[in-house]
Amino acid sequence: MNIADLRTKAKDFELELADQKRRIGGENFPWYPYGTLSNLIHLDTLLRGANRELDNLIGGLPIADVGAADGDLAFLMETLGCDVDIVDYGPNNFNTLRGARLLKEARESLVNIHEINLDAYFDWPRKQYGLVIFMGILYHLKNPFYVLESLARVARFAVISTRIAQYSPDLKTRFAELPVGYLLHASEANNDATNFWIFSDAGLRRLIDRTGWDVVDHITEGNTRQSDPASTKGDERAFMLLRSRQLS
């Protein structure tokens, strides 16, 4: 299961899923408005060498899609024979997880949907995963240290993405090389009170190291010259493949 082949398969699957969503949700159902399968473009850039063969990461174990929106990626991976969990939380999900549940029913899917609040103390649904997809979630967490530390105990590999920053919002203070995090005001970034921590690249790497992970592959995209924590223009994203030191 090469990542490039998965991207190709995703194009047809996205059309299939869009048609299915129209049929089961009607015109007014609030499906998640962004194409989550587009994340495969970033993974195709991120993963190198043997890591491009996803079987090397999954290792025959279950996988989890955390913060899965409508579950598009989870349902795609199921078509390839993967045992998949969706981990999300209704109050924070765009349509309170109704979309994922409608698709599960319509597809007669065996994907498991686990509603878990990552901002509370919790247990992961399984004792071990081969690969966890954890993209666009970290900066929405109140306690990213706890979540990453607990994840390192159950996942061999994780793919994460999160917003990072090199400068303060006024662009006067550069902190890219310092292991720090910026705590957003509730209205500071897109007026979205679920945005919390924006780390520097050094801060993100320190967090990852101290929660029990090694960085295997790493890229940054977006505004890689003058990023800041809050503005649309200053948006920079880090994408990383991580390997748990506890399960390696």
Describe this structure in words.
- By secondary structure, this protein is α/β, with parallel strands linked by helices.
- The chain folds into two domains: about 1-135, Rossmann fold; about 140-248, no CATH class.
- It has seven helices and nine strands, in the order H-H-H-E-H-E-H-E-E-H-E-E-E-H-E-E.
- It has helices at about 5-25, 40-45, 55-60, 70-80, 100-105, 145-150, 200-210; strands at about 65, 85-90, 110-115, 130-135, 155-165, 180-185, 195-200, 215-220, 235-245.
- The protein has a seven-stranded mixed β-sheet with strand order 3-2-1-4-5-9-8, sandwiched between helices. Strands 6-7 form a two-stranded antiparallel sheet.
- Strand 2, helix 5 (about 100-105) and strand 3 (about 110-115) form a beta-alpha-beta unit.
- Helix 1 (about 5-25) runs antiparallel to helix 2 (about 40-45) and helix 1 (about 5-25) packs across helix 5 (about 100-105).
- The model has no long low-confidence stretch (mean pLDDT about 95).
Q: What is the count of DSSP helices, taking H or I runs of 4+ residues?
A: 7
Kindly report the oligomeric state of this protein: single chain
Mean pLDDT: 96
Give a quick account of the main beta sheet: strands, pairing sense, barrel closure.
Answer: 7 strands, mixed
Count of discrete domains: 2
What's the gyration radius in Å?
18 Å
Order of helix and strand elements from N to C terminus: HHHEHEHEEHEEEHEE
